[in-house]
Amino acid sequence: MKLPLIYGIVFLSLLSGLEGRAQETRETVFIAPGGLSVPGNTTRSYQVGGGIERLLERGFGASGDIAAVLPGAGRISNTSGLASLDLNYHFKGVHTEPFVAAGYSLLFRDFTANMFNFSGGINYWITQETGLRLEFRDSVGSPLNGPRVHYWAFRIGFNFR
Question: What is the CA radius of gyration of the chain?
């Protein structure tokens, strides 16, 4: 069995079937200026996407999102996709909620590449149901057996619960 399939099964089992233990489900949308860095070179890129997050007990949670990675220069046809499945921890507060996350990412276009991601940020709850989300995320891997690549971005978005 392939590793991405195992991660997918674990992730889906965390998101479903935990109604008795679940605390809350959130949706998020974001835009993200960032870059694509290889040793000795960084090019500008932008990400646009959304996802879902399920908080479990004691601040722990699981999340999944998908983003289009648009080139900062060049042809729009060079856009790639980046899908991620993460485990996360939220430091609960009244209006502010810092968090950290890490997990698996899949880069795809006319190829696929397995990657690892890590992130950290803060949710600021404007109302009971709507929050501003600020996050830095870095997805790291070696697509097409090339050099190590970092797809990093400063995500700016909204949460809805």
Answer: 16
For the chain (length 161 residues), average pLDDT per consecutive 10?
Answer: 54 50 83 96 97 93 97 91 97 91 96 96 95 98 90 97 89
Q: How far apart are CA 54 and CA 155, in angstroms?
A: 19
CB 45 within 8 A of CB 37: no
Best CATH choice for the domain 3-17+31-160 from the list 3.30.70.560, 2.40.160.20, 3.40.50.620, 3.40.50.300: 2.40.160.20
pTM of the model: 0.82
Whole-angstrom distance, CA of residue 115 vs CA of residue 138: 10
